[in-house]
Design brief:
Helix content is about 40%, strand content about 20%. It is α/β, with parallel strands linked by helices and about 325 residues long. It has an 8-stranded mixed β-sheet with strand order 2-3-1-4-8-7-5-6. A 5-stranded parallel β-sheet has the order 11-10-9-12-13.
């Protein structure tokens, strides 16, 4: 990537920014807007970096200090092969307007004058979705909040995340589903060392386990008090290993156990990281009384206190626990 690299963050920008800092601890970031960061110290392979991340949807490189239709047309022409040239312009500073569309059409006209048949890829939103860029194979240009012009060099494979969300064998909608993107961010925040083991003591259907395997964690352990959840996790792990061969050699163990007594379940085993979305209580119907809500909160508080007591026994020195608060966990769903 160019020394001036930009990162477009997804729906949870604060969590995505924290993930970036964990994955690129030496990089320095400046904030152009809540969802756009700039760095002069990013890694060289943007596509490989983006494949590791859950919260960043695009990585780009700054190519000009301001928007210039002629310069943009030059760039499209230099990257155009055979067939129709597909390009799009995303406006990061403000919502799309008729003036913005006109500037894109100006670029298209300049390309036509050069004998290049071009199509301006548009979206109802001000920014092109990452999926649209990948599916169309379009070159995307970003007009940054600073007015600078950047070119997208990697866009998140949204279809692959969706496949792992709705295409796997088991999803428990009643108990709740953690989006794979969020699970990946949580795994990255844990910074599991090479060869280390990650434990999810509320593993449910195994989303954190499978995203950890895809992130390169060599060994994962899942525990859940529900035999049904354990069976679902095991089934989903088998599916993952069949469809993602790079995970085939990883060590996986999923078993029934109570988070309040992990020491009895796992014995003397110690882990490098604990990453989990905890049990959030029974599904709310909207008709609960204050007394019912207070009782649920009291039970959850006791459960979490017991869980952290067990975590302190299970973690190796320097190990991390990634455990969202109740309000954060509900907002991430």
């Amino acid at each position: 990537m160019n020394p001036s690299s930009i990162f477009v963050l997804g729906r949870t920008p604060e969590l995505a920014a924290a993930e970036l800092s964990a994955v690129l601890p030496q990089a320095k970031f400046s904030t152009l807007s809540p969802q756009v960061l700039l760095s002069n110290d990013a890694a060289a392979d943007a596509k490989a970096l983006l494949s590791r991340l859950g919260g960043t949807v695009k990585i780009g490189e700054v190519i000009a200090n301001s928007f210039n239709a002629a310069a943009l047309a030059d760039d499209v022409a230099s990257r155009h092969g055979s067939g129709k040239a597909l390009f799009g312009i995303s406006w990061m500073a403000r919502g799309r307007s008729a003036a913005h569309l006109a500037r894109g059409l100006e670029v298209k006209t300049l390309l036509k004058q050069r004998g290049i048949n071009a199509r301006l890829v548009t979206s109802r939103a001000a920014q092109l979705p990452a999926a649209a860029i990948n599916r169309h194979g379009a070159i995307e240009y970003l007009v940054l909040p600073t007015g600078q012009l950047a070119r997208t060099v990697a866009a998140q494979d949204v279809d692959d995340f969706t496949r792992r969300d709705v295409g796997r064998p088991n999803r428990d909608l009643k108990s709740g589903t953690l989006p794979p993107k969020v699970a990946r961010m949580m795994v990255n925040l844990a910074q599991v060392p090479a060869g280390g083991t990650l434990l999810d003591p509320f593993c449910g259907s195994g989303t954190i386990l499978t995203e950890a395997l895809l992130a390169g964690v060599a060994s994962v352990v899942g525990v859940d008090i529900s035999p049904k959840a354990v069976a679902q996790s095991q089934d989903n792990v088998r599916w993952l290993k069949q469809h993602y061969p790079q995970t085939a050699a990883a060590q996986v163990r999923v078993q029934v156990g109570d988070v309040r007594n992990l020491a009895a379940t796992l014995g003397r085993e110690r882990v490098a990281a604990i990453v989990t979305e905890p049990y959030l209580g029974p599904p709310r119907r909207g008709r609960e009384s204050k007394a019912q809500l207070a009782a649920t909160m009291a039970k959850l508080s006791a459960l979490y206190a017991d869980a952290f007591g067990q975590f302190s026994q299970m973690l190796l020195p320097g190990g991390r626990a990634v455990f969202p608060s109740l309000s954060v966990a509900e907002n991430l769903r």
